[in-house]
UniProtKB/TrEMBL annotation:
Key words, A-Z: ATP-binding, Hydrolase, Magnesium, Membrane, Nucleotide-binding, Transmembrane, Transmembrane helix
Source species taxonomy: Eukaryota, Viridiplantae, Streptophyta, Embryophyta, Tracheophyta
Transmembrane regions: 7-24
Protein name: AAA-ATPase At3g28580
Region (Disordered) residue spans: 308-332, 455-477
Keyword Transmembrane in record: yes
Name of a matching Pfam family: AAA
SUPFAM superfamilies according to UniProt: P-loop containing nucleoside triphosphate hydrolases (SSF52540)
Reactions catalysed, as given in the entry: ATP + H2O = ADP + phosphate + H(+)
Organism: Ziziphus jujuba
Length: 477
């Protein structure tokens, strides 16, 4: 038998003993437990080349659970459900999903770069000596995890392995937490639970473009070290532009769901000054998307906000155009373009952790180039009118149809008309339950034909108008 086999045998014997001890120690009085453990440890040190690290649930402050303990609990929840025989179940995310973790006095094995290690959970029941309101002399349960590994791997385990455990555990925690949608009421954030069903899978857009966006987001979320190495703040700006109803807001919700981020929906018109803007930003947490919708309506892009009187003079010729948002208190509102630019690249926007900044607009051509240059808005994404590829996704979502003889007609009509995915989706909505795909497709084709006619007429009218004004000018000359 080789030395390494001996080690392995000794390791599993010791592991087995520790496992048995973890199971049965609860039947011994606490003092005796401590005595046996102490004695066992000193005997073990002679023969046993293993190191043990204990992570207590509460350290120092009795009311704050240790971050390391929580991260380990989460990390172990991923492999303990496969190995441990006794599990604890807990509800997370507003009682919507169940998380399993190993019960007290269980042991699970883990492997890291080919090295085997053992995690054991346990608890000590001790009498509380702290004078409290009513529970003096009550018993307190002190839980812990113990990690056992061969001393040969000390540096690897204490360094990279534990870092890996904490990182993974925190990531699981982020995934399981209840996410929030924050909105600013003046210069204060208030929040509600964020539960939007939008997903990239159900978003109607070209698959290549969609994949590019997903890859970009995932790369960003995993690039902490890269951003640190090139000396850039860990944030990324997205500009989403396109006509109303093409899925800009839906995409933001899908981004938040993909990365498990919170959303801060910033209403610029309710912010009174650049300083308030700064304060709001400092209060945002890591792993979040800061959204400013309809940026063209929120700010006068010459650098000063639009004054109320001026706004009333603005003539809206395009029926699709949104009127500028009303200021709640226009006299006191002084957020400027330079304030907003500072908001994006100011030092304080980099405070701790990753952030996405997303602007949306219906009129990209109206925006100041300074606002959307690369580095501020790193990625410009156009959400266009519905094309056939986008329609196929909607048909799959709404009608559960992958193909149909009418699809060729729809494809031809979509090439000849400008219709938004929101309009297409509305026509595909079942009018009765259960829905009837044939009827929905017929309704959509009729609507497309009607829109096509209307758009043709409108184009002809515009041509005639243009011709008329040209004729007038010619006549004048
Ligand atoms: N690309 C899309 N894929 C799937 N559904 C879409 C898409 N675009 C729009 N919809 C549907 O239309 C509705 C309106 O879309 P959304 O609010 O995202 O549009 P928007 O681009 O933000 O419009 P606005 O410019 O007016 O804010 C959504 O609830 C969604 O169901
Ligand atoms: Mg929107």
């Amino acid at each position: 038998m080789t030395a390494s086999e001996n080690f392995a045998n000794l390791g599993s014997m010791v592991g087995g003993f520790m496992f048995m001890w973890a199971m049965f120690k609860q039947f011994f009085p606490p003092q005796l437990q401590e005595y046996i453990e102490k004695y066992f440890q000193s005997v073990l040190r002679v023969f046993h080349p293993y190191i043990q690290i204990t992570f207590n649930e509460f350290t120092g402050d009795r009311f704050m659970r240790s971050e390391a303990y929580i991260a380990i609990e989460n990390y172990l929840s991923s492999n303990s459900s496969a190995q441990a025989k006794r599990l604890k179940a807990d509800m997370v995310k507003n009682n919507q999903s169940l998380v399993l973790s190993m019960d007290d006095h269980e042991e699970v094995a883990d492997e890291y770069m080919g090295i085997k290690l053992w995690w054991a959970s346990g608890k000590n029941v001790i009498k509380s000596q702290t004078p409290g309101f009513y529970n003096y002399n009550a018993t307190v349960e002190k839980r812990f995890y113990k990690l056992n590994f061969h001393k040969r791997y000390r540096d690897l385990i204490i360094g990279p392995y534990l870092q890996h455990v904490l990182k993974e555990g925190k990531a699981i925690n982020v995934k399981n937490r209840q996410r929030k949608l924050y909105t600013n009421n003046g210069s204060y954030w208030s929040h509600v639970v964020f539960e939007h069903p939008a997903r990239f899978q159900t978003l109607a857009m070209e698959s290549e473009k969609k994949k590019e966006i997903i890859d970009d987001l995932i790369t960003f979320s995993q690039s902490e070290d890269f951003y640190a190495s090139i000396g850039r703040a860990w944030k990324r700006g997205y500009l989403l532009y396109g006509p109303p109803g093409t899925g800009k807001s839906t995409m933001i919700a899908a981004m938040a769901n993909l990365l498990h981020y919170d959303i801060y929906d910033l209403e610029l018109t309710a912010v009174k000054s650049n300083n308030e803007l700064k304060r709001l930003l400092i209060e945002t947490s890591s792993k979040s998307i800061i959204v400013i919708e309809d940026i063209d309506c929120s700010l006068d892009l010459t650098g000063q906000r639009r004054k109320k009187e001026k706004r009333e003079e603005v003539e809206i010729t395009d029926p699709d155009e949104k009127p500028p948002k009303e200021d709640k208190d226009s006299k006191a509102s002084q957020v400027t373009l330079s304030g907003l630019l500072n908001f994006i690249d100011g030092l304080w926007s980099a405070c701790g952790g990753e952030r996405l900044i997303v602007f949306t607009t219906n009129y990209v051509e109206k925006l100041d180039p300074a606002l959307i240059r690369k580095g501020r808005m790193d990625k410009h994404i156009e959400l266009p009118y519905c094309n056939f590829e986008a329609f196929k996704i909607l048909a799959k979502n709404y009608l559960k149809l992958e193909s149909h003889p009418s699809f060729s007609t729809v494809s031809r009509l979509l090439e000849e008309t400008n219709i938004t995915p929101a309009d297409v989706a509305e026509h595909l909505m079942p009018k009765t339950l259960p829905g009837d795909a044939e009827t929905s497709l017929k309704v959509l084709i009729q609507a497309l034909e009607q829109v096509k006619e209307e758009q043709k007429l409108k184009a002809a009218e515009e041509d005639a108008k243009e011709k008329k004004s040209l004729d007038k000018e010619e006549a004048k000359e």
